[in-house]
Amino acid sequence: MKRAMLEVVATGVVTEPATSRTRPATACAPPQIVAATTVAALQWLGREDHAFVTWDRYHQVYRPSPLGCAALVSGFPPERCMAIHADLQRARECIVLTSDLHLTFLCVSPTDDLIPDWRRLLQLVNSLQASSTSSNVTPNPSHPLQRSSGKPEEMTDSERVGRRFWAALILRDVLAEVDLQEISRKFGAAQGAIQGLQERSSRFASMLAAFCERLQWQDLEMLVSKFQARVLQGVRPELLALTEIPFVRNYTARKLYSAGLRSPDSIAALEDETLLIEILARGSTGR
Predict the structure, then answer these.
(1) Is residue 70 part of a domain?
(2) Quick check: 129 and 138 in contact, CB under 8 A?
(3) Which of 126, 140, 125, 136 minimizes the C-alpha distance to 99?
C-alpha cells in the first residue's frame, strides 16, 4: 500500500487528505478498512524522519519529495529506501576509490541471499583488516568468528553486512576477470550462483544509479552507472569500450585488447579484415 500511495501522489491522483480517504472506495475490500490502510500508508510516507511525500501548505496538496521520486524511479520498495539512502550518504562522505571493493559492495543488494563460508570469510576479513582500501566496508571480524564457531544464525545487521561483503568479494573477482572455475573453488560457490550474483548485482546497480539521479547526487550516479556497465559485462575498466560493440563479450574483448585493438575506432580503422579474423580465431582467453 505504501508504494501504491506514493505512485498516486506522484501522478496527482491523490492531492489532499479528502482524496486519500475517498479514493479507495472502489477497491474490493470494505471501504472503511481500505481507507484506514490508505491513510496509515500516507502518514508513514509523510513522516519527518523519511519524508517520501510532503504537504505543500501554500497550494494545499501532497507532493512527492526527492526521496519519493527516487523510490519511484528506481523501483525500490519505500521500506528499503531508508537503508539504501543511508548507505549512499555514507559513501558520498567517505567512499574509497583506491580499489573496486567499496563500489562493489554498494552494487551488491543488501538482501542478497548468498550464504558465506564463515571460516573463509574470517580469513579474508583478517587479511584485509589493516588495509585502508577496505576499512569502510569490511565487517567486524567478531561476527564471522562467532558464525564460524557455530553460533546460530540471526538476521542482524552484522549478519547482513557479512553476507553482503562475502558477495562483494566474489563479485570483485568476477570484475577482475578471474576464471569462473577458480572463483568457484576459492569461495566454494557454484558457478551458476556466481553468475546469478553478477546478474542480480547488475540490476541492483542500475536501480541504484536511477535512485542517485533523482536525488541529484550526480557524483555518485556517474560512479555507479559506469561501474554497473562493468558488473554487467564482468570486465576490467579498460575493456568497457570494447564491450559496447554488439555481441562482443568479455573474452572477445580481452582478445582484441591484447592484440592492441583497444577501442571501437581502432577496429573500424583496420584496413585488413583478415587480421581481425586471425585475432578472433586465436585460443580462448578468459571465461
Answers:
(1) no
(2) yes
(3) 136
Q: Is residue 206 part of a domain?
A: yes
Looking at the structure of the chain, the number of domains it has is 3
Residue 197 is assigned to a structural domain of this protein: yes
Q: Phi/psi at 167 (nearest 5 deg)?
A: -65, -35
Please indicate, yes or no, whether the overall pTM of this predicted structure exceeds 0.85. no
Query: From CA 196, how far away is CA 114, in angstroms rounded?
Result: 10
Q: Are residues 47 and 25 in the same domain?
A: yes
pLDDT by residue for the chain (287 residues), tens only, comes to 788 888 877 776 665 655 554 444 445 556 677 778 888 888 888 887 778 988 888 777 888 899 999 999 999 999 899 999 999 999 998 888 888 999 999 999 998 888 899 889 988 888 886 555 555 677 766 766 667 666 656 667 788 888 999 999 999 999 999 999 999 999 999 999 999 999 999 999 999 999 999 999 999 999 999 999 999 999 999 999 999 999 899 999 999 999 999 999 999 998 888 888 888 887 654 44
Burial class of residue 167 (count of CB atoms within 10 Å of its CB; 0-12, 13-18, 19+)? buried
